[in-house]
Amino acid sequence: MKTIEELIPLIEDWTNEKGLLKRENAPKQYLKFLEEVGETAHEILHENWDKAKLEFGDIAVTVIILAKQIGQKLTFKENSHTFCLYYILQCAKESYISTDALRILSGVCNYYNLSLTECLNLAWDKIKDRKGKTENGTFIKQ
User: Residue 62: how many CA atoms within 13 Å on its side-chain side?
Assistant: First the structure.
């Protein structure tokens, strides 16, 4: 299993290869972030914890991409005491993302007895070999 610090540059490189790292793509990436938060909330409500793990990882991927698009450097420290998805929504806006976004997301994962590191590894394993193209600021998978 890779650490979050190892995964961030891998995800950034993957994103760059897909043509997503342009700042003008940030508004679409922000919408993708919101979509992933909604999917995660759905899995939490239905207590589908295996699916929730992947969705938490997907949120982390969207946060990493959005931060890179707008030139924000993320910091990471595990074991935050945050427990509500609402706080991760407060961390990201179309043109701004808090440097603490991953720390806050880690706290939400911890609240549900999940590890953000494990969640992000699951998401990375899902996307790393994905083929597709970027159209109008959105990655369209094959």
Answer: 30
- What global pTM score does this model have? 0.92
Beta-carbon contacts of residue 111 (< 8 Å; ≥ 6 apart): 82, 83, 84
Tokens coding 125: 């394993």
**Helix, strand, coil abundance in the chain, percent, nearest 5:** 60, 10, 30
Each residue's pLDDT tens digit, 9-27: 999 999 999 999 999 999 9
**Rounded to an integer, what is the distance from CA 134 to the centroid of its chain?**
18
Structure tokens at 97: 């993302």
3-state secondary structure of 118: helix
- How is residue 132 written in tokens? 């597709």
